[in-house]
Amino acid sequence: MRGITTGGSGTIRVVILLFIPFFFTTAALATTPITITGIIDGDTVRARMADDRQIKIRIYGIDAPERHQAYGQQAKRKLKSLISGKLIKMEAMDQDFHHGRIVARLLADGQDVGGKMVSTGYAWVYLRYCRLPSVRKEYERGEQLARATRCGLWRDQNPIPPWEWRRFGKKG
């Protein structure tokens, strides 16, 4: 048996050429200035790139309450307050093809927006997806601080995490 059956000598080259733009696009997004054009909820925004491309960004490593969930609107307002009037850059971490968005860390004047959402009590650390050890550790410390000081959603005795809210069919 020979290695790979190509169906023609150019097939492999075509496949490789199709993937090259994806890798360069992802790399180009790694530390890119963006303009926020809309806030969907406490962990998702719409943005415009320098080349006028419109994108949707899910903030890496956090999960904020859904829009119709307790603290959902407060989380959205908190996110707006953290990014309004600031220089915003994103560090692309992943792509969520299912929802058509980029998963990225957002930096507002150099400050990690996801970390601030967690430490002020308007988002949970999304342990399932927050896999970068340094970020995860920082976010977990922030969440512990928010819990200890009963900030934001931690004012409630037993706030319901968004992943449980969604699992029970209460989408926002």
Q: Which key features would you list for this structure?
A:
172 residues, 5-stranded mixed beta barrel, 5 helices, two-stranded antiparallel sheet, OB fold (Dihydrolipoamide Acetyltransferase, E2P), alpha+beta, globular
Q: Which radius of gyration do the C-alpha atoms yield? A: 19 Å
Q: What is the beta-strand fraction? A: 25-35%
How would you classify the helix and strand content by structural class? alpha+beta
The largest sheet has its strands arranged as 1-2-3-6-5
Give the helix level as a range of percent: 25-40%
**What would you call the shape?**
globular
Give the CA-CA distance, first to last residue: 53 Å
> Averaging pLDDT over every residue, what do you get?
86
Report the count of strand segments.
Answer: 8
Count of domains? 1
Instruction: List low-confidence stretches.
Output: 1-7, 11-29
Main beta sheet: strand number and arrangement?
5 strands, mixed, barrel
CATH class: Mainly Beta
CATH architecture: Beta Barrel
Commentary on this structure:
The chain is of the alpha+beta class and 172 residues long. It has a single domain, classed as OB fold (Dihydrolipoamide Acetyltransferase, E2P). Helix content is 35%, strand content 26%. It has 5 helices and 8 strands; from the N terminus they run αββββαβββαβαα. It has helices spanning 11-29, 72-83, 113-119, 133-148, 162-167; strands at 32-41, 44-48, 54-59, 62-63, 88-96, 101-108, 111-112, 124-125. Strands 1-2-3-6-5 form a 5-stranded mixed β-barrel. Strands 4-8 form a two-stranded antiparallel sheet. A hairpin with a 4-residue loop joins strand 5 and strand 6 (101-108). It is globular.
